[in-house]
Amino acid sequence: MSAASVERPHDDRPLIAEANRLMDRNPGYRVEIIEGQILASPPHDGPHAEALTNLMLPFLAAGSHGAESQVLQGIGLWLPSGAEDYAVPDLALVDTDFQEHLVENNCYDPVCFRLVLEVTSSNYQSDLRTKVSAYAGADVPVYVIVDRRHQRLHVLTDPAGGAYGNHRVHAPGELVALPDSIGAKVTLDVAEILASGGTEPAA
């Protein structure tokens, strides 16, 4: 947590106000605040959206969207790293009662998140670096990254001390069973997911 975030009064939210202004002026952009920095991402390309849809299918088939958990796109996650920090993962698996854990600015307490997932775009370094520490610091149990640039799938687990203790990288041809801790038996076909996501566009 930065010194500026600590000293800022709780009822004063200048970064969130600016982030919300950016969203109003740039419809379709995803705006986040991570480690006191505003990150604005332009609308994603079609293959990114196709990859997300295909990623939802094994979760739905495993019964993850039901009485105990929900599979959601674009839900805000409140981060403990700063007074105004929040992220908006591409996909998340959350407890069904997540609405009871609203913090502010349409973001929810990380306690109700079982898994977050990002599909990389031109700002891929944010997903592979900045968000790794952000999600680990929030103790999100599982972080999955579909790395379109390098054609790999990353599965990070066991968060502790702001880092993930286990980081496995998977290549096309592998079938990846996600940890049972998410509450369902979900297996991802790396080749299928990467094929639907295509090649990441240049920055």
Task: Provide an overview of this structure.
The protein is of the alpha+beta class and 203 residues long. The protein contains five helices and 14 strands. It has helices at residues 3-7, 14-25, 46-61, 124-137, 190-197; strands at residues 30-34, 37-41, 69-73, 76-78, 86-87, 91-95, 102-104, 107-108, 113-119, 142-147, 152-160, 163-170, 175-177, 187-189. It has a six-stranded mixed β-sheet with strand order 3-6-9-10-11-12, sandwiched between helices. A four-stranded mixed β-sheet has the order 5-4-8-7, with no helix packed on it. Strand 9, helix 4 (124-137) and strand 10 form a beta-alpha-beta unit. The radius of gyration is 16 Å and the shape is globular.
H/E series, N to C?
A: HHEEHEEEEEEEHEEEEEH
Count up the helices: 5
Global morphology: globular
Radius of gyration: 16 Å
Extract low-pLDDT stretches: 1-11
- Order of strands in the sheet with most strands: 3-6-9-10-11-12
Helices, strands, pairings?
Elements: H1 3-7, H2 14-25, E1 30-34, E2 37-41, H3 46-61, E3 69-73, E4 76-78, E5 86-87, E6 91-95, E7 102-104, E8 107-108, E9 113-119, H4 124-137, E10 142-147, E11 152-160, E12 163-170, E13 175-177, E14 187-189, H5 190-197
Parallel strand pairs: 4-8, 9-10
Antiparallel strand pairs: 1-2, 3-6, 4-5, 6-9, 7-8, 10-11, 11-12, 13-14
Helix pairs in contact: 3-5
